[in-house]
Amino acid sequence: MVKVALAGLGFMGKMHLGIYLNKLEGVEVAALCDVNNGALNIKSLDAGGNIETDGAEIDLSGIRKYPDYKEMLKDGGFDFVDICLPTYLHADAAVDAMDAGFHVFCEKPMAISVKEAERIVDKVHETGKLFSVGQCLRYWPAYTEIKRLIDSGKYGKVRYAEFARFSMTPTWTRDNWILDGRLSGNAALDLHIHDVDMILFLFGKPEGLKSNGIAEKDGSISHITTLYQYRDKVVTSSGGWICSGSFGFNMRAMYILEKATVELDFSRNPVVMVYPGEGEKYPLPLAEGDGYYYELRNFAENVAAGSFSGTVTPESALESVRVCFAEIDSAKRNKETRI
Ligand SMILES: NC(=O)c1ccc[n+]([C@@H]2O[C@H](COP(=O)([O-])OP(=O)(O)OC[C@H]3O[C@@H](n4cnc5c(N)ncnc54)[C@H](O)[C@@H]3O)[C@@H](O)[C@H]2O)c1
């Protein structure tokens, strides 16, 4: 049995808690931390947010609870810390946990700046602790099955790929921290990093990029569109949270290969359709469950085994933060950025 301490019981923390309590075997929730006493005493997993949590009734009475993160680290009694705190707290929380001797799973984005993300990577190397980030698309069946199809070479090379992530404005975070660009990086970091990470996972680092963004009053970017430079393909991505509330949320992608076109659209069922050059269109079979479940299962198994075997490494998570900031820089200067 692997023991976890979960920090931050807002939208994402409740999502993770539900997985630990109701879906994953072999993980025990040993401690919970939140500055908000109400969050520590929730009776259901209903969370708000742009992706549904399961809303199940829960009983947290047997679990140790802490308003103070450092107190929780001091008391210990767990193997890893799962950080679901606001992004600007990630680096300090991760570094403190590793210094205290714990492995760390941290929600995305890894940190609020490249410098802070580098600080985490340095600490991983110094302590030898296991560390991964919730770049959940690398574990999400729709995206991973398409990657498997591309990597198989069955339909030839990718000629064009396009990723899109559209959301209503998030209004569910504590004190609206997410709408303050200094604390969240706004959508250009917080939301868009999902597609950036998938692009890097599929195609590696681009040579350069050009972004355009919609800037808010504080200068941070609430919607960003980027053209990435690869020699042998055209890749674009667009994401933000300026959609009207009634729209909700959707993620989409389009892949044009030499011998097939593949479309992913979460507003549709089946989510992934394959349109081959020869033969009938067909839905791509997908495993049940979402990326949150598979990423946490993988990390818990890694902790149990004492070694890391995941696809989200400290370095890959840092690279995704770097590319997001290169895009933000490009959008602000209205110039191409070389990488
Ligand atoms: N992987 C995904 O798809 C996904 C989706 C949503 C959010 N996230 C990420 O998850 C993280 C949390 O976002 P959220 O939407 O859950 O925010 P949230 O505001 O809903 O939850 C954050 C929680 O942390 C608590 N908190 C704040 N400061 C604290 C402190 N110093 N000590 C202890 N607790 C503290 C708050 O009280 C709150 O309950 C962010 O980094 C966000 O980008 C990831």
Give your account of this protein's structure.
The protein is α/β, with parallel strands linked by helices and 339 residues long. It has 2 domains: 2-134 and 293-309, NAD(P)-binding Rossmann-like Domain (Rossmann fold, 3-Layer(aba) Sandwich); 137-291 and 321-338, 2-Layer Sandwich (Dihydrodipicolinate Reductase, domain 2), CATH 3.30.360. Helix content is 34%, strand content 26%. The chain is built from 11 helices and 15 strands. α4 packs parallel to α5, α5 (114-127) packs antiparallel against α11 and α9 packs across α11 (314-333). It is globular, with a radius of gyration of 20 Å. It starts with a strand and ends with a strand. The relative contact order is 0.16. The model has no long low-confidence stretch (mean pLDDT 96). Bound molecules: nicotinamide-adenine-dinucleotide. Nicotinamide-adenine-dinucleotide binds at residues 7-13, 33-36, 39, 69, 84-87, 89, 107-108, 134, 136, 173-174, 177, 190. Residues 7-13, 33-36, 39, 69, 84-87, 89, 107-108, 134, 136, 173-174, 177, 190 line the site of nicotinamide-adenine-dinucleotide.
